[in-house]
Specification:
Length: 113
């Protein structure tokens, strides 16, 4: 097990315990739940943005006792009559849903988002 120290810029801190095989996405979800925040960006003590949810913590350079900063992201929503898009500035994903003819399907431009 790994103990990872996660802090918000406000100074609020949590010590989170994760399995050694955990991925960045696992830590982000645990941090989001622990802090009661829906969208967080994780940054290592060396300044590296931990953006790939599938990357293991060890591959990302995060080990037992390390410190990570969690930055709260503001969610943005855009809508037409029949479709919606949700994203966070500085985030790594755009979610779209609704009528594909009205912008609800972004799969053809996913590599540009």
């Amino acid at each position: 097990m790994l103990q990872i120290n996660v802090a918000l810029p406000s100074g609020k801190r949590k010590s989170l315990t994760v399995d050694e095989s955990s991925k960045v996405g696992d830590l982000r979800i645990l941090a989001q739940q622990s802090f009661g925040q829906g969208f967080l960006k994780l940054v290592s003590a060396t300044g590296r943005c931990l953006a790939d949810p599938a990357e293991t913590l060890l591959a990302a350079g995060i080990g037992d006792g390390d410190h990570v900063t969690a930055i709260v992201q503001q969610a943005n929503l855009a809508a037409t009559e029949d479709a919606f898009a949700l994203w966070c500035c500085g985030g790594d994903r755009v979610l779209t849903w609704g009528n594909p003819e009205a912008g609800g399907d972004s799969s053809s431009v996913q590599d540009q988002l």
